Amino acid sequence: MNSMNQSIANEVPSEDESPVPVAESQPTDTVIEEGKTVGKPFSDNAKFSLRDVEVFYGQSRAIKKISLDIARNQVMAFIGPSGCGKSTFLRCLNRMNDSIDICKVKGSLQLDGQDIYDSKRDVVELRARVGMVFQKPNPFPKSIYDNVAYGPRIHGLANRKADLDEIVESSLRKAGLWEEVKDRLEATATGMSGGQQQRLCIARAIAVNPEVVLMDEPCSALDPIATAKVEELIAELSESYTIVIVTHSMQQAARVSHRTAYFHLGHLVEVNETNKVFTSPEHELTESYITGRFG
Amino acid sequence: MQPANLLLLTLVLAVVAYGLGYARSRSLAMPLGGIRHLKSLPFYYGARAALWSGIPALIVLGCWAAFQGKVIQLIIIGGLPPELIPETEGQASLLLSKISNVASGALPAGFVDAPIAEAAERLKALRGQSRMLMSALVVSVSVLAGFLGWLRIRPRLNARSQVESILKWLFFACAALAILTTVGIIFSVAFETFRFFGKVPFTEFIFGSQWSPQTALRADQVAAQGAFGMIPLFTGTLLISAIAMVVAVPVGLLSAIYLSEYANRKVRGVVKPLLEMLAGIPTVVYGFFAALTVAPFISDLAASIGIEASSQSALAAGAVMGIMIIPFVSSLSDDVINAVPQTLRDGSLALGATQSETMKKVIFPAALPGIMGGILLAVSRAIGETMIVVMAAGLAANLTANPLETVTTVTVQIVTLLTGDQEFDSAKTLAAFALGAMLFLSTLLLNVIALKIVRKYREQYD
To answer: Which of A271, B277, B305, B426 has the greatest number of C-beta atoms within 10 Å?
Structure first.
């Protein structure tokens, strides 16, 4: 399976929005202590409770002892320079890393108090509860209707055609796409614009009625107008879903998220309320990053 | 000098021209301050000089070689005494072959008339002269054109675009060669096919259900009137191909799915080459296997459950052919399945689909057109396969759908019709061409359909 290259490639965004390129300009005098995170990484109302998480790709350690809580019905943003491990970490939350042979996850990862990586855990059930939206819109080469109906069908969520129609309609409505596509539900999804495709993917993800939606740079392949629509959508969805979003745009993190986590070279450096991170960061690496001194 | 040696010499001259052109462009460039002041790189000046030296010489060589025989013949016939000048084409060719036999020494000069012997001497002399002239002409053209090309090298000369455009034509010529060969094959088959339909009515061939291509050799011979109905042969071909596909498609497809979706890298690295090795086994070896192992096994098995089966059967040939085709199907399907973007897999898995659901509902539909294309290519291969059928299915042209009986196929009949001593004006021999034409048409049709499907597939998820 050639999934590994692809997944690692996901780590490197095609369009890096930060002005200054990568590692050389990073301040070298700052030492990050392993497993130490400043700010408020923990929460009383945790949906995910993650402790001492480590991820290995073969010999190399991509995630270094991260502990973090992700609060219920909130939007959590992961920010950080390219290759810092945010996407890898995100993919642990619904075990999408499973398909990579050399990827090993250690530590305790719990969703509502149940271990995600328990050997008895049913991945299908986990992923039905924790949906995901990818960096590049990836609609199936099927009709718009079939794309949204895909999840409900495999999970048997609808007994009759009418139920399925209803799920499709409500999902498309939640994704703000219904008015645009209601007359051409049988048209193939790959013919839509990039922004529409991405919203279709969001509709597809929420059609399964998940509790959590993971978003891996959902706007990096979209134009500003489509981005604005998706961000609006995230704000609406956060009322009923827990959302984790990886983003390279700090404005986006500031606009949509309640809490922000800053990753650096596999470490979780700082977690706090979003406005706090962007107005008064505690760690100097966070400050350097958000002020644009390195990307 | 022999044309082959001359060709070699021309190539050597072209290489020399390349070296000289390269050197001249460099020496022109040095006073200007380096090769960056040249319009093109020295390589292009050298290549240009080589092309100037080589191409005209090759054209002269080709024309000379093509026309010298005809010209010499005309001269020889023109020089014969009037009473010997042949009247018909056939006589002329007989006479010329006699003369050339004498000239080559195969026929001693004492056995023929004096004018013929004289003509043979003249032929020898003419051939020698022609060869000399050709050598001189080709070498001088090569040297002269090469020199001209060399002389005209200037720093401002855009050798690159000239070389590129010549190369473009060269590539075109290569592509055209393949197409022309195909056209030539079509014409040669079509011509004989029309001759066949002059002897046997078209409708009898297409709709006839009897195939026994025995015809009387002499007019007074009592023999069966041949029957040329192609239906039993095409039925046999279809039957065996269908059996082959029934074996090859499920096994090939499922192993492709296993290899691309389930197998880890180590298993894949071992299994895939092993599977592809099946394609490298000569068909005659498959033939042994079918005839000596599979066919007796099938007939024994059938006998043990009380069914009568012939010792050579369509089933044996078809099954072994199917095994031969497995790597075709699996390799092509594997490529197509791998070409489905990983993002689609991720999308499906992230929705909580299992691996097999993802395969069934997303990957397979997306890859289906490509898989169909691969299967159709495999069908073409099955239809064209001969050796296994000769060895395992027999030669009897039965019109039957029973896979346990012996049948024969179009290709097998073509082989049997054309092996051995044949005369090229009997319906029996010409029937091979008609069969070939029909086979060509059907595989062509399949290939066109396959290409259409593959093209459509390209637009699917891009």
So the answer is: A271
